[in-house]
Write a structure and sequence with these properties.
Strand 14 (419-432) and strand 15 (437-442) form a beta hairpin. The protein has 19 helices and 17 strands. A 6-stranded antiparallel barrel has the order 11-12-15-14-13-16. Strands 3-6-1-9 form a 4-stranded antiparallel beta sheet. A 3-stranded antiparallel beta sheet has the order 2-5-4. The two termini are 35 Å apart. Helix content is 34%, strand content 14%. By secondary structure, it is α+β, with helices and mostly antiparallel strands. The protein is elongated, with a radius of gyration of 27 Å. The longest helix is centred in the last third of the chain and has 21 residues, at 494-514.
């Protein structure tokens, strides 16, 4: 598995990966020497220990033992608590900072944590974390401080700790082979010095920590630590939480006030897994959340306020990432104002999906909105079936969509590699030529000739309802699913918990029925979905495989543009201009898995499982080989794996009933 560890001892990391010593009330921790430094006999070890609810009412319950059973003197302090719980576990330790000394001259050590109470009389004093770190000597890591000793907590213990939503640790399946190939071949070696801001989109640091938690890889923990230090140093410490100051924003590459780059989750993950609180400032965390809320932009309507305006710019990415920042900031600070924002966001997302959409079209489970407002693409009308010369006052179209809107006198745009003749209006009604083509009269003559195949689009400044414009992103909706899943842990209101469950079912339905090209589904899966949802698929393209990245010819093809109301020709028009969207299949599993988990109809649940199994085909050797060639963006590892989609799916496979609420306890 670890054929190339870039100078790091494969034996050391194999030991760290093999930890299986977790039992209730105790866990093993592997201490791994950082291979970039020489080890001493009195190394300062600082680590973070996530703790499940009620395991440790306070930090004095935490006890560290050597292999021979003797107790290790420690400094221990709670960094996070279960402050949002309302039962007997309320206020118990959620993550603790642990410091102690260890002789690392002979290689890795295995210690054991218990929660039976320790001899506090021998406790150590807190030591500056810098004593146990040194500047990185690795090329491309910008000399950031990194730990001399890497602590790896048992991965099965972590999966049950509640630090993040429940999941199953790595099993060595083809998904793990895929992610390991990504990390080994390029993600670990990313250069901080030469990267652009886009490489940090979707939260590189959190993704690395979650990958480390699932796999137990010490090199992943090390790279996550480095990434946090580099990222945190570029957060704006000054000014207000509004534009143009954006205190807490990612002040790199012009992204200071771009909420897509404003995160609190890396702080939570770094605190809980490393114990590094040297830069923790709760007021600053509150400001990060406020800045994200104030600059939400594409997520303002539909999150901060109800989605009520047809022409409102909206993206599921903006909605989801902003809500996730609120949730993780609340987990850290317990700020009641942030909790109020979370509730507001849940309500507005639910209403958008289920009770009110200004387009007045049927509910379909998606967060349907204007695609022109989302992506800038004008809605599709049709293709010129024959040339139209300069001075022409009519055009003939084929493969048309929404032809009835011609009667409204809508303005048109003529497009092929650029826009011309854009101020001409259609004059209705259109004439059906009886051969699949339509003639449309124009309000004035063309100023330039148009060739056959030229695209004609609607240009509606007033954003009246055009079905070809009403859509959702089948992959971006995962960002909302992830945020709602995190919200599920901290919300106490049963009505809002029900709203979250409803959202999951709807999002999964939207992806399954309108987010994947029907022709790419296995025949059995297609039939299962049609029967379960009383749905008839309509093919969107004669060759949907042309839209995928080429990793797997047997997996479903995810569409860039999903819609229950747009005609197939309009869907194909957008999808055909955004190939490679199957790179987003990995994270889509989260929405499908949670839809299945909370589905009350057994037939729908089984159909969703069939679809997930089809998606699993994407993690094939072909995909591994393609990723090894670095043929996708650097940020792809983050967009695919930040939400821990596959680990979540494996967890849902092990849960037979829906019993997890407010902290994921049964």
């Amino acid at each position: 598995m670890f054929s190339d560890l870039k100078g790091v001892s494969a034996a050391i990391f194999a030991v760290a990966l093999a930890i299986t010593g977790s039992v209730s009330g105790a866990t093993q921790v592997q201490l791994v020497p950082n291979p970039n430094f020489s080890m001493g006999s009195d190394e300062l070890v600082t680590l973070g220990l996530p703790v499940a609810p009620c395991e440790a009412p306070n930090a004095s319950q935490i006890r560290l033992l050597r292999p021979n059973g003797s107790e290790v003197p420690v400094f221990a302090n709670a960094l996070l608590s279960w402050h949002f719980k309302t039962d007997e576990c309320a206020g118990s330790v959620r993550a603790a900072k642990i410091q102690f000394r260890a002789d690392m001259t002979s290689g890795p050590l295995t210690y054991r944590f218990e929660f039976s109470g320790r001899n506090t009389a021998q406790d150590l004093s807190e030591t500056p974390i810098s004593i146990g770190t040194d500047p990185s000597t690795v090329a491309g890591k910008a000399g950031v401080d990194e730990p001399r000793v890497i602590a790896v907590i048992d991965r099965d213990y972590l999966s049950a700790s509640g630090l993040i939503p429940p999941y199953v640790a790595a099993k060595g399946d083809q998904y793990d082979g895929y992610t390991n190939a990504q990390f080994d071949n390029y993600w670990r070696d990313f250069s901080f010095d030469s990267g652009s801001a886009a490489n940090w989109l979707f939260d590189r640091t959190t993704t690395l920590y979650k990958y480390a938690m699932r796999t137990g890889r010490a090199d992943a923990y090390l790279e996550a630590y480095r990434s946090f230090r580099w990222w945190y140093a570029r957060l704006n410490p000054n000014g207000s939480t509004s534009n143009p100051d954006c205190r807490g924003g990612f002040d790199f590459g012009g992204k200071k006030c771009d909420q897509k780059y404003t995160y609190a989750e890396p702080i939570k993950m770094h605190l809980a897994l490393t114990g590094d609180d040297s830069q923790l400032d709760l007021d600053f965390v509150n400001d990060i959340a406020e800045t994200a809320w104030n600059t939400s932009g594409f997520g303002a309507q539909g999150l901060k306020s109800p989605y009520v305006t047809l022409n409102r710019n909206l993206s599921e990415r903006g909605v989801g990432l902003t809500l996730l920042t609120q949730v993780t900031a609340f987990e850290i600070t317990g700020n009641a104002e942030i909790l109020g924002r979370i509730g507001t966001g849940i309500d507005n997302i639910f209403d958008h999906q289920n009770t009110f959409n200004p387009d007045g079209l049927p509910v379909d489970g998606s967060l349907r909105h204007s695609w022109r407002g989302h992506e800038g693409d004008d809605p599709y009308l049709g293709l010129l079936s024959s040339p139209a010369g300069s001075g022409s006052t009519s055009i003939v179209l084929e493969d048309v969509a929404d032809i009835g809107l011609v009667d409204t006198g809508a303005p048109l745009r003529f497009f092929r590699g650029g826009v011309i003749n854009q101020n001409i209006n259609a004059v209705g009604p259109a004439t059906d030529n009886g051969n699949g083509t339509w003639t449309i009269n124009l309000s004035e003559s063309l100023s330039a000739s148009l060739s056959e195949g030229f695209k004609v689009r609607w240009f509606r400044a007033d954003f009246d309802v055009i079905p070809s414009d009403r859509a959702f992103s089948p992959w971006m909706i995962e960002n909302v699913t992830d945020a709602m899943w995190h919200s599920y842990a901290v919300i106490q209101d049963p009505a809002r918990l029900n709203k979250i469950e409803t959202f999951f079912r709807g999002a999964g339905q939207a992806i399954a029925l309108w987010g994947i090209t029907p022709q790419s589904l296995n025949s059995g899966t297609r039939s299962d979905l049609e029967m379960a949802y009383d749905h008839t698929f309509v093919n969107t393209s004669s060759n949907p495989r042309a839209w995928q990245d080429g990793c797997s010819s047997t997996s479903p093809v995810l569409m860039y543009f999903g819609s229950s109301v747009a005609p197939p020709v309009a869907i194909a028009d957008i999808a055909g201009s955004h190939s490679g969207t199957d790179q987003h299949l990995p994270e889509t599993i989260l929405s499908l898995a949670l839809a299945r988990h909370f589905e009350t109809d057994p037939e729908k649940s089984e159909a969703l499982l069939s679809l997930i199994e089809d998606v699993d085909n994407w993690f094939s050797s072909g995909c591994v080989n393609k990723i090894a060639g670095r043929n996708i963006p650097w940020r792809a590892f983050a967009w695919q794996h930040r939400s821990n989609a596959w680990g979540t799916f494996l967890w849902t496979q092990e849960e037979s009933t829906i019993v997890f609420r407010s902290g994921f306890e049964n």
